[in-house]
Amino acid sequence: MNDAYADKLGSGIPSDLSSPASYRVGVGWLVAVAVAFTSLQFAFVLPHLGLGWDEAVYVSQVSSHAPAAFFSAPRARGISYLVAPVAALTSSTVVLRCYLAVLSGAGLLGALWVWRRFQPAPRLALAGVLFAGLWVTQFYGPQAMPNLWVALGSLSCAGFFLRAVVSRGAGRTDRRALSGAALCLAAVVLLRPPDGFWLALPLVGAAFLVREWRHWAVFAAIASGLVAGGAEWVAESYLRYGGVVSRLQTSGRVEGGFSWHLAFADQLRALSGRTLCRPCNVPWSDKADSLWWFALPVLAAGGVAVARKGRRLPSVLLPALCGVSMAVPYLLLVNYAAPRFLLPTYALLALPVADCLWWLAAGAGRPKLRPVATGLVTLVLAAHLAIQYAVLANTVNRNVTAHTDYGRIAADLLGLGVSRPCLVTGTNAIPIAYYAGCASGATSGNNANITVRGITDTAGQRPTAVLVPAGQQPPAYARTWTGHRLSDVQQLGPCTAYVAPRPARPGSR
Predict the structure, then answer these.
(1) What is the mean predicted confidence (pLDDT) over 79-85?
(2) 0.90 cut: is pTM over it?
(3) What's the rounded Cα separation, in Å, for the pair 282 and 432?
(4) N or C: which end of the chain has fewer CB within 10 A?
């Protein structure tokens, strides 16, 4: 690295790499955080949590347990590919959860490891604690949902990108870093294409605006990542949705339209443990649960200022810009909220926040204040983590109840003779059908995939049931079917299953 460029960037290489002993200690910090992340998932989330609605859709695409559920336009298949090695072999949710918990710990370790060239390991470990300590990170660690993996991929991509452009500025080409950035960006696009776009935007901007970073190899890496990750989504768009534009339009309708909408308050109300807030017209309760959200932008900005003063601005400003960019659609363009949407932002902002907290704990430049400052930062962080795990416990309990309800209704249907091969339609049909090993169907709404004629034809060939909330009338095609009151369930409410007459067996009279 030439002297002028090194002076502009800062030291770059953290001091904990100066000796083998220090290196091992540094590795230990990161491994400890990753192991704790996985262990806490086993302790708080894994034991009894069944598959949720969206998980049933993703897992059913690669599982032999049930037919593939309807795959709506906004979805992407990256998470299905991630769970395929396990889902194709077993229908055990426990095995799947264990696989994802271990894999997410390894993913967190890998994402932090990429940044060791720019941050000392203890500070990276603090960033890992800040991100992994959030209830939403813990909750989605063992789940078959794309958002956490987008977060880890984005953090890794930004780190590889920075390594590549720093090498370019020093007159070298780090092909490994370029390949890493391209692969991680491809993974993000494969998981959630729009998130890949919002991640690539600041990377392209940075490569264009910083003269030392402006090189065709950098732009080629970003382009190849976008193309490789998006190829399957584009191909599917033409095969199933009439083209990319048509798919985007359909996605917009399913998501309620993409237009200017300030969703800050929606996200704030969802932080108390709601996995989905749609429509988000609930009151803002449990305000202590969301105080950290107000501190997040302040601490992130403080981290950028500290890094600028320490002449290592790129290593903190770049992830901050990427985090802000990836929050734009979910804070400004979507009219509902889900805390998981902002996981990539939280992962990327964890780096500048950790920088700021590290500076504050060191006494904010006043060595005499260090003992007191360290104690205060530790106490605040401990209180924050305690609140996060209280929210996590409540969230897990609510979801365990709801997912148990799916299983109980599926067991009731089995008792009524609705067994594979079979069809389930009506309320909550997708997850209940998956639990029962049946196909799911809907004649209207965002998941419409069958006609009334299709349902009645299927009912003449295999067991078919329609689920109707208690007190409501069944659809016209099921008025003559036999109604059965199902087990009382806590979260979903009582419902009735209208089961079609048993189809005649071939050759019977």
Answers:
(1) 97
(2) yes
(3) 27
(4) C
